[in-house]
CAAX amino terminal protease self-immunity
Amino acid sequence: MTAYAPHYRYIAPAQVAHYDLPRLVLGMILIEAGYHLGLNLVDAFLASAPDSFVDAVHGGTSRTGLMLQLFSFVIFGIAAMMVTKHLHERPAITLFGPPAQAWSDLKRATAGGLLAFGLIEFLPPYYPMQGAILNAPIAWISTLPLAMFAILIQTGAEEIVYRGYLQQQIAARFRHPAIWLIVPNLLFASAHWDTTGGVGAAQAYVIWAFFFGLAASDLTARSGTIGAAIGFHLANNAFAFMAFGTEGHPDSGLALILFPAPDSLLPPSVTEAQFDFPQLTIELLVIAILWLAARIAIKR
């Protein structure tokens, strides 16, 4: 595919290094093991902290707690870079593509995605705002740069693993786009399985995550870097974490606008216990809009 010509240059470093499947499987095991070992060390460090603080970190229910949770993803990204360097014997920087272009793509895709979300918010239908409150707006503004950096760490780490390491290594072994587009994102989607809100909600979330990852993989293939995918992911998660939340609910710590708990006043969402097909359809449409905005921004 002509549109994916940059992808062949992107995966070239993986093709001249070790790209056998057993090594890839071992690499993913080492990445996951390193990540969970790192999280265990973080938990050990938090053991002496008050229970309320630890709960806020695990649940992301406070500003500091959620940022610490997001910053912990740096372990995930470092694990992938170490595996790339020491197991596959190629420079970790090759996971990103050309650095200058990756940085440019990241900035452009982030700006395009945030602009798209802004335009979507101005269009009907509108959220019912009964009972909603502004969550410490001065603190929200003052911590905005640090919060965005924390989200960049989280999204960047996930992109390094799934659209960087996995996609490159699989594409080095299998040339057909269907394989390197689908397989990494089946793993990405499975990592989002969470039955806390019910099986129906978990199923919807996994489907959403698969198509989200597919869009990120496509951007990576079109641009030849993971910069656009990180920007696409960053814009999505910045809006998800920093715009709206439910008081006391997971990942609500950075939200500017909080709805009261229980969330009976919230619009339907894929976090509800049942499988909400109409809402999932809307969420997938938002992915398509965000993907298109990123493509326009990076001119791909």
Summary: The chain has one domain: 2-298. The chain is about 70% helix and 5% strand. The mean pLDDT is 93.
